[in-house]
Specification:
The complex is a heterotrimer of chains A (288), B (352) and C (278). Chain A is mostly helical and 288 residues long. Chain A is built from 12 helices and 2 strands; from the N terminus they run αββααααααααααα. Chain A has a single domain, classed as MetI-like fold, CATH 1.10.3720. The longest helix of chain A is centred in the first third of the chain and has 33 residues. The C terminus of chain A is likely disordered. Chain C folds into 2 domains: 35 residues, no CATH class; 197 residues, MetI-like fold, CATH 1.10.3720. Chain C starts with a helix and ends in a 22-residue tail after the last helix. Chain C is globular, with a radius of gyration of 22 Å. Classes of the chains: A mainly alpha (288), B alpha+beta (352), C mainly alpha (278).
């Protein structure tokens, strides 16, 4: 089949034009600046600018929010994946599919749905209001329920991230755990392990590859998102993604925007390298 | 078998990424001959087959088909068909479509195709399987489809690349006989690649033993078994005891501390040689009647015979493998004798 | 315990579905306010279809998605076959570059393409959007087709030649049918990615050309709109139907011919397209 090698050449050309060159451009813009006389000079100004507390704080906030959401996803998703992989349900495939379907709806509409829920006059508050009125009319009781007022706060952003990325945590863990050899668990029981021991010594260590790829798959999009913060965070909760967007669409500071992109890229590469050190060998926990 | 030569390989060499896979191969194959290329993996046998099939190009040398050079003829124009190692049946086609593939390309009439395919199915004992998907067949059945798919094109030469490698022992034996029968009845030249010496001995008219990209010996199964040309062939074909020895003079050889009569000559006086003795050619005798004395280290029952490891007591610690229908007690001391014509002398350094 | 486990599953699924269900319910609510149910209406659906902006962006989305995934499938499938047959070093290089758009944060891909288009003075609009979508789609096609090529018995092609097929005939009759499931998966993946993309489109379009995601975003930023509820309902129901159809089809295929010695194909049509749409 060697004579088919040429079939890759059109794509090779495409990759150079649309993948390699654009990244080079980002790099180029990040380390250059226009001098007053119009000439282009090499500079690290753009990266230096990032060290101002205002910008560093944005990075810290982005990482923190992503870490929070990842932890919440793990805490929520791990038990769910275990239960789904266990013997409680007969039609597991359907349940797993159900966990995935929301992901197929447009991401923006999914995020938008939380706006309608969390709004001051939103569904949740309206629901509480209805409960109060029902209590007053039928039970003759004065009920005062709290009102949620979290839209355009960090909490809303985290909530949006968890909602959008939870399936990315559930799936890899599920796919690893459901492929676990049942006889391993039985062997552990046979050797006298109680449920806790079996979990601690067998299931958990073996599920780690899935956990790791779940963490990667939640953390990466969470740290780079700029849509969730735009819709649910309002203007004040700027994440690094929003900062980048701002440089290109408002401030027109392409150099700083490019530098921020490079920093984001490094952040992603770093965390991926960090994860893969623990992954040792990818045991197929990913979605791919 | 007639004597017309159908295929000739002249000085064929081939390297992959700088490593020589074939080194100056010269070979001719007669019409209707069953030729087996035999050797360990990596010896070049499959590469040779692929060059004949047209899937690899030789770096040097000529490939002649009926006297014509066909080095540059693409695979699909050669009058040669192949049965691939793991069958390579087209999974998206059923049995009939697989077998008819080549005929459809030749744009044959539908009825002719049907007839030919059905004949083939009968030949390989798969009547009634034509609508089955190939995935639903057992290994042996897939094998038969692969053979039928190749044979239906009426090739001059059929190439078979370890075709029985994936089958279990019993099925293999059956298929060996069946293949031989098909080859005889159709009168087609078979070039068969295998690493199984027993298979080669059972089926072939001619065996080509290869190692490290070179031909070690060409001959009939009897020749190869009885008169191995070097220690490699002796060791690879059947089990052998290969012992260091010294050729004292013509017909006299010393090994294991004793001089034996033999039937070889033409060596220098006191030339060091390899002495090859088949395990079944060593006879176990009472201690007093033996030419050698040895201690039985282990005895294993092999079904037809016992395999014994016997350490020669007057040699330099050689352990001989002996096959015998008589059993000796483990730990006992026995006598061993070897007939002169069972002692094969080989020049040193031909181990290849 | 079993009850606890089941309730837990129920709660998580409630969390996943409640927002969607509420959107669906309110899309039929006569009142614009979310607090109260004031009667059933199809008014929002009528308004949705009358909305020029939304309909235009829907048209753009479909056109871009179809064109981009078609181009990506052709280029990507050809590329996979080429890459598969390359020597190791070249193959690794190609595959690694192919991975860049998959791993790269979308925002970086988006701005890098924007920089490219502005450097070559290509006005942002339909063309730039299409080029961007093709670029992020091809890698997924390659990643879907590659495993099929690897699974394929490497002698199949030779077997076809051996039986007299020309290289082109062998390609058409043997290789293509073998990798077809991967090609289709790749196409569907490209289609959904393209349909859903916001971030990359956001940076690579202009001159009033916008796709559905961009329109939704701009409407949502202006506040709640019952039209968006109606749109969500339609999108959710169509996705659901599509998934059910595809699921029935693939499970049928699976039962019809499941290669032995091969891990069962995990219906990856269902597994969403990684985190690309964020």
């Amino acid at each position: 089949m060697k004579q088919y090698r040429w079939l890759a050449y059109p794509y090779a050309v495409w990759m150079i034009i649309f993948i390699v060159v654009p990244l080079m451009l980002v790099l180029f813009f990040s380390v250059t600046a226009k001098a007053p006389d119009g000439s282009i000079v090499l500079t690290l100004e753009n990266f230096k600018k990032f060290w101002e507390p205002m910008y560093i704080n944005v990075l810290i906030r982005s990482v923190l929010l992503a870490v929070y959401s990842t932890v919440i996803c793990l805490v929520l998703g791990y038990p769910l994946a275990l239960i789904l992989a266990g013997r409680d349900f007969k039609r597991k495939n359907i349940l797993v599919m159900l966990a995935v379907i929301p992901m197929w709806m447009n991401f923006l509409l999914r995020t938008y749905s939380w706006m309608t829920l969390l709004e001051k006059n939103g569904t949740i508050n309206a629901f509480f209001g209805t409960l109060e009125r029902l209590a007053a009319t039928y039970l003759n009781m004065e009920l005062t329920l709290p009102r949620v007022n979290i839209l355009y706060t960090e909490t809303a952003v985290i909530l949006g991230m968890v909602y959008n990325f939870l399936p990315f945590m559930i799936l890899p863990i599920y796919s690893v755990v459901s492929k676990l050899d049942r006889s391993l668990i039985e062997a552990a029981q046979d050797l006298g392990g109680n449920n806790l021991v079996v979990f601690k010594r067998v299931i958990f260590p073996l599920s780690l590859p899935g956990v790791l790829s779940g963490i990667t798959m939640v953390f990466m999009p969470a740290v780079t998102t700029f849509v969730i913060s735009r819709l649910l965070g309002g203007a004040q909760f700027m994440l690094i993604g929003n900062l980048i967007e701002r440089q290109f669409l408002f401030s027109n500071d392409w150099g700083f925007g490019s530098a921020l992109s490079i920093i984001m890229l490094l952040l992603i590469l770093l965390s991926m390298g960090f994860m893969s050190r623990y992954e040792k060998e990818n045991s197929g926990g990913g979605l791919w | 078998m007639n004597n017309e030569i159908i295929l000739r390989l002249v000085n064929i060499s081939k390297a992959f990424d700088g490593t020589k896979a074939l080194d100056n191969i010269n070979l001719y194959i007669r019409r209707n001959e069953f030729v087996t290329l035999l050797g360990p993996s990596g010896c070049g046998k499959t590469t040779t087959l692929r060059i004949i099939g047209g899937f690899e190009e030789a770096d040097e040398g000529d490939l002649l088909f009926e006297g014509q050079r066909i080095n540059d003829l693409p695979a699909y124009k050669r009058k040669v068909n192949t049965v691939f190692q793991r069958y390579a049946l087209f999974p998206h086609m059923n049995v009939f479509e697989n077998i008819a593939f080549g005929l459809k390309i030749k744009k044959m009439d539908k009825r002719v195709i049907e007839e030919k395919v059905n004949n083939m199915l009968r030949l390989v004992n798969l009547e009634g399987f034509s609508k089955r998907s190939v995935d639903s067949l057992s290994g042996g059945q897939q094998q038969r489809v692969a053979i039928a798919r190749a044979l239906v094109n009426e090739p001059e030469v059929l190439l078979l690349d370890e075709p029985l490698g994936a089958l279990d022992l019993k099925l293999r034996k059956e298929m060996q006989l069946e293949l031989k029968k098909i080859q005889k009845s159709l009168g087609i030249t078979f070039i068969y690649v295998t690493h199984d010496q027993e298979e080669a001995l059972t089926m072939s008219d001619t065996i080509v033993v290869m190692n490290n990209g070179r031909i070690q010996q060409i001959g009939t199964p009897q020749d190869i078994y009885n008169e191995p040309k070097n220690a490699f062939v002796a060791d690879f074909i059947g089990e052998s005891n290969i012992i260091d020895g010294t050729m004292n003079e013509d017909y006299k050889v010393t090994f294991l501390g004793r001089q034996f009569d033999c039937v070889d000559k033409g060596f220098m006086p006191n030339e060091p040689v390899d002495v090859v003795v088949r395990p079944e050619d060593i006879k176990v005798r009472p201690q007093s009647e033996g030419m050698l004395v040895g201690k039985v280290i282990s005895v294993t029952f092999k079904g037809v015979h016992y395999e014994m490891k016997i350490e020669g007591l007057n040699g330099a610690g050689y352990v001989l493998t002996v096959h015998s229908t008589l059993m000796a007690e483990e730990g006992s001391v026995v006598g061993l004798s070897i007939d002169p014509f069972d002692i094969h002398i080989m020049k040193k350094g031909l181990k290849a | 315990m079993r009850f606890l486990r089941r309730s837990y599953v129920f709660l998580v699924f409630l969390f996943l579905y409640a927002p969607i269900i509420i959107l669906i319910v309110y899309s039929f609510n006569a009142s614009k306010s979310r607090g109260h149910w004031t009667g059933f209406t199809l008014q929002w659906y009528r308004e949705l279809f009358k909305d020029r902006q939304i309909m235009n962006s829907l048209y753009n989305t479909i056109a871009i998605a179809l064109l981009a995934s078609l181009i990506a499938t052709i280029v990507g499938t050809a590329a996979s076959i080429g890459i598969f047959n390359m020597k190791r070093v070249k193959r690794e290089i190609m595959l690694n570059i192919n991975y860049i758009p998959v791993l790269n944060p979308d925002i970086v891909t988006g701005i890098s393409l924007m920089l490219l288009f502005s450097s070559i003075k290509l006005p942002l609009g339909f063309t730039s959007l299409l080029l961007a979508h093709v670029t992020f789609n091809i890698p997924y096609v390659v990643l879907s087709v590659m495993p099929k090529l690897k699974q394929m018995n490497k002698h199949l092609y030779e077997a076809a030649l051996d039986l007299g097929a020309t290289p082109f005939y062998a390609f058409k009759k043997v290789i293509l049918p073998e990798i077809m499931p991967g090609v289709i998966t790749g196409f569907l993946l490209a289609l959904t990615l393209s349909f859903d993309d916001f971030v990359i489109s956001f940076f690579t379009t202009g001159n009033g050309v916008s796709n559905l995601s961009i329109t939704v975003e701009s409407l949502a930023r202006r506040g709640i709109s019952p039209k968006l509820n109606a749109l969500s309902t339609i999108m959710f129901v169509s996705v659901l139907l599509l998934l059910i159809i595809v699921n029935i089809r693939t499970s049928k295929d699976e039962n019809e011919r499941r290669p032995k010695n091969e891990k069962s194909y995990q219906g990856n049509v269902f597994v969403s397209p990684s985190s690309h749409d964020i």
